[in-house]
Amino acid sequence: MTRLALFLLPALLCLTGCQREEQLGSGETLVEKANREGVLIMGNSNEPKGLDSQVVTGVLESNILRALFEGLVSDHPSEDATVLPAGAEVLEPDATATVWTAKLRQDAKWSDGAPVTAHDYAFAYQRILEPSFAAKYAEMLYFLKGADRFNKGETTDFKEVGVEVLDDFTLRLTLRGPTPYFPQILKHYTWNPVPRHAVLKYGTMTQKGNAWSKLGNIVSNGPYQLKSWRRNDHLEVERNPYYWGADKVTLNGVRFLPINNSYTEARMFRDGLMHVTYTAPPEIVDFMKKENPSVLRQEPYVGTLFFRCNTKRKPLDDQRVRRALNLAYNQEEICNKILRGYKPAYGMTPPMAGYDSPHAISFDPETARRLLAEAGFPGGKGFPRLKILLASRETAATVAQAVQAMWRKELGIEVEIENKEWTAYLAAMQEFDYDLASSGWIGDYLDPLTFLEMWTDGNGNNLTGWSSKPYEELLQKSHQEADAAKRYALLREAETIMTAESPTLLIAWYARNYLMDPAVEGWKPLLLDNHPYDVLRLRTK
Amino acid sequence: MTRIILSRLFQGLLTLFVLVTITFFLVRMMPGSPYTDEKALPKHILEQLKAYVGLDKPLPVQYLTYLKNLIVDQDMGILLKRDGVKVSEIISQSFPVSAFLGVLSIGIALIVGLPAGVIAAVKKNGPLDYACLGAAMMGICLPSFVIGPLLAVFAGLGLKWLNVAGWNTPTDWILPAVTLGMVNAAYIARLTRGGMLDVLNQDYIRTARAKGVPGHRIVTRHALRGGLIPAVAFVGPAFAGMISGSFVIETIFQVPGMGQHFVNATTDREYFLIQGLVLFYGFLIVGANLLSDLAQIALNPRLRASA
C-alpha cells in the first residue's frame, strides 16, 4: 500500500503538471492568458463587505465601486488635482463656490439600459442621509446645506437639504459654505448615484439589507458591470455595454482577489497568477529591489502614521511632555530602516495639491530633553512607565520598538508595548483606556481638511481628549473662505496650533509598496490610489 | 444499539444547547462591538444600527430572541458588517468547499497514515519503524504554515507543476489537501502503531502465531480490527475539524472555505456569524463523534456486546 502511494503521488503530480499546461495553453501563465483576454487581475486584500456605495466604508470596496459606478465627476488617471467630467458634462459653481449646478449627460445609462437622471442622484443623497438608513459614511455629505440636521433627525423635510432637481438632467447642490474644492469631494463613492428603480424593486429606500446590490440584481452606471462573485475567492467585473463611454473603455474586465495574506499574494504574483498585488511585505520589497526592480512600485499615498496621546492622562496632559516625546525619535531612521518608502512626517497633513504642512516636527533630542526637564522629569527621572498600545500588526510593533529604544537613549525613559487584537485595540482607544496608541489615517479626499477636521472637539475620530478653541475657529473660518490660497493659509495656521500642542506624535507619511506586472500600461502613481481602470491596457507579447 | 444512538443524540443536543449559550455570552463579553471601526461612527448612527438588529436590548432579551429565531424560525441571523447577508448563506457557500477539501485530506491521511502505522508496528524497532516514526514526528512537529508554503514554493514556483494558490482548477486541490492530509496522517500513523502494538502483544495473537497462522494473516484478520480503534477515535473529531475548514491552509492556498470566516468573524465581532459557525462546528463534532462511536462499536466486540 505504501509503495503504491509512493508511486502514485509523483505520478499524480506529473499528471497535474501536464493538466496545468493544457489548461493555460502551452506554458502560458494565468497572467499571460488574462493579457490576451484584456482582464486585469488585482489583489484586493479582503472580501468586500458589500457593493452598495451608501453602505460600505472601506478602501477595498472603493476599488471595486470605482469600476462599477460613476459619480458626477471621476478621477484623472495621472493627475491627482484634476477631476474629469463623468456623470455631469458640466459642473458649475456660483461666484462664491457655494451653489453648484450639474448638467448631467443625457446618454448616461444604467447597465439595464435605464437612463441615469438627476432623480437618481437626489434619491441617493436622500437615502444616505435618512436617519433610519443609518449610513456609516453619511457625514461625507455634510458639505450639503442642512444635511447634518436632516441626518441627525433635527428636521424631517428633505427640502431643507441643499439638493434640488431642476429637471431630469439638471441638479443643483447648495453647500454649507464656499467649497472651491468640492469636485475633489465629489470623487468619493458616497456621492455616487444609486439606481432608484432597482433599489425600489427589491425593497424600500431605507431598508437595511436591500438586495438590489447582490449578484444578479445589481445594476451599475460605471464602465463595468458585475460578472461573478464567489466569496473569499474572486469578484469579477466585465464591460458595461450601456456605459456612455463604452467605446473608449480599454480593459475588458477586472478580477479582484480577496487575498489577506501578503506572502500568499507575493507568491501568487511570482507564479504569474496576478498582475497587481495589494501590498508587498518589507522582506519582499528588499528581495524585489535586488531581483526584479521593474515590478516593484513604491509610491506616496495620502496617509499619516502617528501615535495618539491620551491627553486626559498624566503626564501626557502636559504639552511639553508630548512635544518632548515627539522630538526625541529619529523619523528618518525609522523610515529608512523599517517603513521602506515612507517619508518622515513634519506635519499632520501629507503634501497634497499645493498644500504644504507647517514644518513643525523634526528630530531634536536636545530640545526634547530640555522640555522634559521643564515638565519636571530631568533626564527622565520620575517619568511614569507609559504603554504604547498597538494592534497585532508586525510593522507597527517594529516602529514602536524603535521609538521605545530611541526614547530610552535620548530621554532616559522607559515605555512598554501593549499588543491587542484589532477590535480590542480600537475599543481601548475609544474608551480612552490607553496612554499612547499607534495609529494611522488615510485621507478620504484630496484636501487638508480630511486630516484636520477629525481633531475637533467631539469628533469620533479624535480620541485624544485634546481640543483647542482657536484651532476650531480657524477651521470654521476656512469653511467660509472661497479663496483657495487664503483658505490654505487658515488651515496651515490651524495645523501649526495642532502640531505645536502635539496631541499626536507624528512619525511618517504613508507610501504604497506593491508589485505590478510590466504588462500593465497606463497605471500612474496617484496620491489617493484611485486608479480608473477603463484607461489601463494590458500588453501581450 | 438504538438506545446508544438515542442517548448520544440527547447528549449531543444538550451539548449544542450549552455551546450556544456559552458562545452567546462569551462573544458579547469581547471588547468592542461589530460597530467598532477605525473611523468612529457618530452616536446617532450607532444607536440606529444597534436598534436595527436588537443590540440595544438587554442581554437576556437578546439571548431569548436569538434562541427563538434559531429554534422556531431556523434563522441563525444576519451579518452585521455585510448588509443583507445571512449566516446560513455564508455557511452554505463555504461549507461545500471545506467539506470537499476535508474529504480529500482525510483520504490522504488514511491512505498514508494507516499503512505507515501498521508497518511501523509490525516492523517494531526496525529501520522501517524508525523511518515511519521519524516521518510522523516531523509531520506532527512541523506546523501546516511551514509545510504549506514549502510545498507551494517547491511544486509551484520551483517545478511549475501546480499553482501556488487559488481554487480554480482541480489541480488546485492537491497542495492544500496534501498539506492538511499529511499533518493528520502523522497522528493517524502514531495512533495506529500504538493500537497495533497493543493488540499484537495480546494472548490471542500469540495463540494464533503458535498455531502457525501466517504473519500477514495475523495482521489483516486478527490484529487490524482492534488496532485501528485509537485511530478511528481520532478520525471522527479530526474529520469534523477538517471539513469545517482550516484557517491556516485556506489562507495560505486561498481556498474559499469556512476557515477564513471563523477567524474574520471573530476579528470583526460578527456576533451572529461566530455563533452560527460555532453551532455548525458543534453539530459536525457531535455527528462525527457519533459516527466514530458507532465505528468503534462495530470494530470492538466487547463494545458491541454491551450495546
TrEMBL record, chain A:
It is found in: Cell envelope. Signal peptide: none annotated. CDD domains: PBP2_OppA. Pfam families: SBP_bac_5. Keywords: Signal, Transport. The keyword Signal applies. It comes from the Bacteria. Residues 85-461 form the Solute-binding protein family domain. InterPro entries: Peptide/Ni-bd, SBP_5, SBP_5_dom. SUPFAM superfamilies: Periplasmic binding protein-like II. Belongs to the bacterial solute-binding protein 5 family. This is Peptide ABC transporter substrate-binding protein.
Automatic annotation (TrEMBL), chain B:
The keyword Transmembrane helix applies. Pfam families: BPD_transp_1, BPD_transp_1_N. InterPro entries: BPD_transp_1_N (IPR045621), MetI-like (IPR000515), MetI-like_sf (IPR035906). CDD domains: TM_PBP2. This is ABC transporter permease. It is a multi-pass membrane protein. Belongs to the binding-protein-dependent transport system permease family. It is found in: Cell membrane. Its main location: membrane. PROSITE patterns: ABC_TM1. The chain crosses the membrane at residues 12-30, 99-122, 134-161, 173-192, 227-252, 272-292. Keywords: Cell membrane, Membrane, Transmembrane, Transmembrane helix, Transport. The keyword Membrane applies. Residues 95-292 form the ABC transmembrane type-1 domain.
